[in-house]
Each structure stands twice: as C-alpha cells, then as structure tokens.
Amino acid sequence: RKEVEQDPGPFNVPEGATVAFNCTYSNSASQSFFWYRQDCRKEPKLLMSVYSSGNEDGRFTAQLNRASQYISLLIRDSKLSDSATYLCVVRGPATGRRALTFGSGTRLQVQP
Amino acid sequence: NAGVTQTPKFQVLKTGQSMTLQCAQDMNHNSMYWYRQDPGMGLRLIYYSASEGTTDKGEVPNGYNVSRLNKREFSLRLESAAPSQTSVYFCASSLQGTNTGELFFGEGSRLTVL
To answer: Could you give the CA distance from residue A88 to residue A103 in angstroms, rounded to a whole number?
Structure first.
C-alpha cells in the first residue's frame, strides 16, 4: 500500500464549479500535511498547509481527518488557471526521517 | 531572483554512461534534496542534506551518489546510468528541514537513458 494515495483523475469541471479532492495516508503517526500544486511540466509549489481545525485560503479550503487518515482540498468557483495537478504531501513521524512523502497527484482540468 | 537552479535541463545518456546533475540555491537555505518523479509514482526522495557537510539516503538511493559541495550546491551523480533511471529529477531546498513543509524546487532535469 502506498504511503499517500490520491485519485489520479482527471477531474474535468466547468469554470465556476466547486471541486474536491481527497487523499489518504497510511501512517497514523504522520505529523503534518500539505497540498502542493504542479503545473504541467513545471516544478511543484506549496499551495497550503493543512491544519487539524481546517483552514481556508481564499477559494481553497483544506481539511484533515486524523481518525480516518485523510486530507481534503476543496476549490470553490474554479478558474481556468486552477488547472494543474494537486499533490498531497505528508510529513513523517517525529521518530523517523521526517521526510516529506508526496502523493502521485490529482489532475484538475477546468473548462470554459 | 534565481531561487533553485538545476543543470542540465535535458540529457540523453546511453546505458553505462555517467553524469552529474548540478543544483545551486541562492536563498541561504540549510537543507537540500534530490527527488525523482515518475508517472504514477509521485516524487520520491533520493538523497538529502539536512545541512552543509551532511548527506543521507532517502527512499530510492541505489545507483546514485551526492555531494554537498558547500551551502549553496548539492550535486547528484549517476555512476553507471540504467534505463530505470529515466525520470525527471528535481532539486529542492528548504530553510531548515521539513518543519514548515515548504520546499523550493528547481525547474527539473529530464533524463533519458537509452
């Protein structure tokens, strides 16, 4: 089983739609969680951190469910510029290397 | 405002050839990383350097070596390239480890091994 699993998509949505991605992680001792964005043939960039209480950044909302070991990202009012691959990232437990483990990504295509 | 610079951006090798990927950052970061990205696999950590003078193996170190030349530079060497090493390689840096979760990536180096 992969440490971090994501639905690869693609999710094809019209402009203005609301779309949500989920990600599951296998290590219950994982400490921190993040969403990265990667445009086609570009480098990944941090989109937002995911806090236990949930957090919002403009049209983006991230949530964490530790009991079920999943993280979600909600995008409201989708824009064409949101088209990208969204990577779920988990930081390892305190006793380990504390490396960041990346999911393989969920591709979003926003259509006009 | 260069950030993380990787060279070369593209390379084609024959099986058995060697090469070095160069990486430099100008953000005065302590930690540097090498990842590879393959379709359906996500980014996988090859080696990292928590600080100048230290290097450690990541998830997939076999077939690679690294050198943290100084605080700015972290190179990745393939001694005898194999087709399984065909991938996109990303160098990244962070101010101090992975505490904030923010890594700054270079633009990537696309390597094909024939």
So the answer is: 5
Select from A47, A55, A97 the residue whose CB has the most chain B CBs within 10 Å, as the one to mutate to test that interface: A97
Give burial (CB, 10 Å; 0-12/13-18/19+) of B36.
Answer: buried
Whether A43 and B105 lie within 8 Å, measured CB to CB: yes
**Nearest CA to A86 among A25, A11, A14, A27?**
A11
Widest CA span in chain A: 47
Q: Strand locations in chain A, DSSP E?
A: 4-6, 11-14, 19-25, 32-38, 44-50, 55-57, 60-65, 70-75, 84-91, 100-102, 106-111
Nearest to A100 among B56, B101, B106 (CB): B101
What percent of chain B clears pLDDT 90, i.e. is strictly above it?
Answer: 82
pLDDT digits 0-9 by tens, B57-86: 998 999 999 999 899 999 999 999 999 999
pLDDT digits (tens, 9 = 90+) for A44-82: 999 999 988 889 999 999 999 999 999 999 999 999 999
Q: Which of B40, B56, B101 sits opposite A34 (nearest CB)?
A: B101
Model confidence at A33, pLDDT cuts 50, 70, 90, reads very high
Average pLDDT, chain A: 92
| Cβ <8 Å between A97 and B108 | no
Residues of A in contact with B59 (CB under 8 A): 99
